[in-house]
Amino acid sequence: MKARVTVTLKTGVLDPQGKAIEGALRSLGVDGVASVRQGKIFEIELDAVDRNKADQALNAACEKLLANTVVENYRIEIL
Amino acid sequence: MKAAIVLFPGSNREGDAARAIRRATGQDPTIVWHADRELPAGTDLVVLPGGFSYGDYLRCGAIAARAGIMDAVRKHAANGGLVLGICNGFQILVESGLLPGVLMRNANLRFICRMQHLRVEKNDTAFTRNYGPHQIIKVAIAHGEGNYVADATTIERLEGDGRVAFRYCDSNGNVDARANPNGSTNSIAGIYSDRFNVLGLMPHPENLIDPLVGGIDGSPMFESLAAISRAA
To answer: Model-level pTM?
Structure first.
């Protein structure tokens, strides 16, 4: 089973990297970019065949390591 | 005084911390491997040194904070034992939950390596007794992720309980945006745990212990620690 975990900064947390990318896009003449926030994607392969078990494992992975929930949100997708 | 320095893959200031401790206490600290499960018996002080543990992969300090030895460090702290996290060590402390908040990328996106003035906010802790009240000290900073951030409630609690250990300032002690190198909330350079036995800070006092290398403003921290342990 394959899964994708997306970790993003919570709203209101300053993202200087996103800001720098936003500025670079503007200087490249890419029009219509209102704002950029940078995050991370993890592509994970699981041994589990059971969806509930996979969900449990992925939640544990996010809470224990993949996201710092002080400043980050995570989203789990089972593919 | 029994000190233990935890060595993670990618730590690189353990030698500096060991030298500072040896100079202040006359004793060699024990180097403890990250995969160990126990601290040496009778450890008074645990130091998490600076560096780039696990190559700063995922988030600075994130993987080191989950290392085997950290349960022992947590237990040591819960029993009132002293823990000092410097630079990457501070990042490990916030990732491990021993201190609140998080250290984000510097606001200007640059790795900053230079001398910096700090104001000692509290000089009645095990770490700072040998400093004067609100003493201005000059120490080195060297980090890319030192921008201290926490939610408003946490900041209020830290400020209200006097848990801010050091603030970035200029040579006259002024704390303002111009003297804040990395964008930290309230110019915070270091904080204490609620019982003041865990200190995390981004600057490097362990590098300022010898006039030969630019100053000795870091020495009082290690002398304070040496004196406390002798008294205990």
So the answer is: 0.93
Burial (Cβ within 10 Å: 0-12, 13-18, ≥19) of residue B215? middle
Pairing of strands B82-86, B198-201: parallel
Q: Which domains does chain B have, with CATH numbers?
A: 3-231 (3.40.50.880)
* pLDDT tens profile A8-48: 999 988 888 899 999 999 999 999 999 999 999 999 999 97
Interchain CB contact of B102 with A (< 8 Å):
yes
A17 contacts B105? CB cut-off 8 A: yes
The CATH number of residue A38's host domain is 3.30.1280.10
SS3 state of residue B198:
strand
B188/B165 Cα distance (integer angstroms): 8
Look at the alpha carbons of A44, B102, B98, B138 in this order and tell me if their dihedral is positive or negative: positive
Separation between Cα atoms, residue B77 and residue B196, nearest integer Å: 10
pLDDT in tens, B75-127: 999 999 999 999 999 999 999 999 999 999 999 989 999 999 999 999 999 99
CB B46 within 8 A of CB B36: no
For B107, which of A13, A16, A64 is closest by C-beta distance? A16
CB distance B63–A68 less than 8 Å?
no
d(CA B167, CA B227): 24
Written as six digits, the tokens of B149 are 């951030």
Q: Which domain holds residue A41?
A: 2-78
* Closest-approach residue (CA) in chain A for B60: A68
